[in-house]
Amino acid sequence: MGDSIIKIKVLGLILLVAVSIFIYYKIPLTKGLDIQGGTRLVLQAEDSATVSVGEESISGVVAVVRNRIDALGVTEPTIQKKGDKQVIVELPGVKDPDHAIKILGETALMEFVEAEWAPADEKLLTAEKIKALYGENARLAKVEDEKNGAATSERLIVLKTTVLTGADLKGAWPGVDQYGNPVVDIEFNSKGAGTFANVTERNVGRPIAIILDKKVISAPSVREPIPSGKAQISGGFTTQQMRDLVVQLRGGALPVPVKIVETKIVGPTLGKDSLDKSKFAGLIGIIAIVIFMVAYYRLPGFLADISLLVYFFLTIAVLCLLRTTLTLPGIAGFLLSIGMAVDANIIIFERLKEELQAGKNLRMAVDTSFHRAFTAILDSNVTTLIAAATLFWLGTGTIKGFAVTLSVGIIISMFTAIVITKFLMDLMIDWKLAEDEKSPLLYRGFGK
Amino acid sequence: MNINIVGRYRLWFSISAVLMMLGLFGFSYNYLVRGKLMNFGIDFTGGTEITLRFDEKASIGNHIGEVRGVLTRFTLKDNVIQLTGEKDLTIRTEPLESDTRSRIIGELQKQFGGVELLEADTIGPVIGKELRTQAFWALLLATLGILIYVSFRFQFKYAVAATIALWHDAFITIGLVALLWKSVDVAFIAAILTILGYSINDTIVIFDRIRENLLKPVKGVVDFEAVTNLSVTQTMARSINTVLTVLFVNVCLFVFGGVTLKDFAFVLLIGFTLGTYSSIFIASPLLVLMEKNFGKQKVRRAR
Hints:
The structure holds 2 protein chains of 2 kinds. Chain A is α+β, with helices and mostly antiparallel strands.
């Protein structure tokens, strides 16, 4: 190689490492839930009586869940669809996972229903009689008087027709009634306000039931028509319940009910613990590889170690660029790929040994060994990639991270082990670091 | 130096048969005594798993009976309580609602003082079933992909020999995991797939050498068996060294890694070691046997 070409290549190599380190600091890897702690939920949408799960309703679920999470004030949540029925929600660093689970899992379908108090001989009422007396949609329900979340007494009410829902609301705010109890202030949008005015006008003296997820939370009697579209919901809430309801009303109701089929909560201690341990384990493993390569393959082994160092920075930079989330299996995949990254060099160096034994001179032997080893390296790496791709497809969350780091690692290792090591070996010959094929810097037991 | 490895195939196959029998024994013992084939985790069965860290003073290791007592009050099914560290306890039980879970933790807190939630997973039975199907397809698909690629790059019989060796590795690994009653979860499936993908590398290196040696005749090496023997010997050092570097990392993860990665590294450790063994002692003799029985290929008339 000409002197200037060498200089350019060496500079390029240094630049590559420098850029990689720059990228690492510029675009830091996001830590996964298993490392920084947090909550992961899988919501599965279920058919309701009127709506079956489909593209539209799932998108609706995602939108509503996002609204609620925003209202909860979680930073950097991820919400994504999985398959046709599931939504995966990841909430990093949530302090009270149970609260989040409760808020996200409820449908929060609010209904305003025209109603009447059941007559005194309620025990005699059957479903058929109610339908005959109050109309086709009428049904019997219980109203529990609650104080601070505990039921104190209950009455029966006949629900007639749903006139408004949470979808007709313009907004919801926390408030207090004249006795200082927590209530939710609501305001209907213009269409809702019109309907509400009509409904209150024709129901003066009768109750309007406010139903949340099929449960009557209160049934205030209408004293006079309300044209303003403003109302107050008091259901004997605790302050926490009131706040949750505001969050849910603002976020809107889920278009279909969801069931939480998977929860994962990771406390902050565990993640930190595991990360530190993995880092330590990885460090020891890398040191062992580096020492082994030098001990067994001497100078070429040392050059392979330099390539490995380039590999290390380059892979991390690519993972940063791909916006990969750093998970524990991901770290395991990366560490394994470091062990695999020197494989190509081992294959080449063993080949080099043979070529030298066959009597070739150093330069020719190096060229032939890289050339001959290529098919074996390519074929073996492609098969590993096939398995990694399958893993990616199987991938639930963290396992996907493993598949990604492994695949990226394999591809980059082919580059560093073949291109960069070859360049360094050529340098070794040009700079006469290893004089000839009998140099003690090459292999143990050489030249016999 | 030329070791006759292929000729002693009866010995190698017997060793593998013994290892497989160990696995089969593990399966039958588990099935008859413990009631299920393997120690399936909640990923497969559905359920709740809670890992808690207790206060040092509680010396929780001596009070597992009391923890069981607390669980009994909640009338839960399928409880397994396991010490996973000096201060750490893992409870596995049926799928719990989140408020039941907090109530249980609250009870334990009352009884033992400072309890910290390290991790809590709940997986519905539906998800577990999905995973079983997915895992099955993933294993099938990975093998099929490898089979097709190797057929394309080499020949069909090379692919068959390599795939049989792979399944040999996977089966023995799964069997040993069953025998040792190690927990089987998603990470285990990932480990098996990784073993499938990585263990074949050594086989490829040997086959690549056979492919090459068939093209340029070596003095005194006349038939396919001799070519294979020569190729195995020539590539022995790289077969061992390549897996060695990966095993360095694995051993470190196993010894120093956190609980989550320990079992994962353990499975890989078994699988990768078997992978190198099977490349040399199973795949290569198999290829020769297939060549003898079905092949028409002559040395020097390669590909």
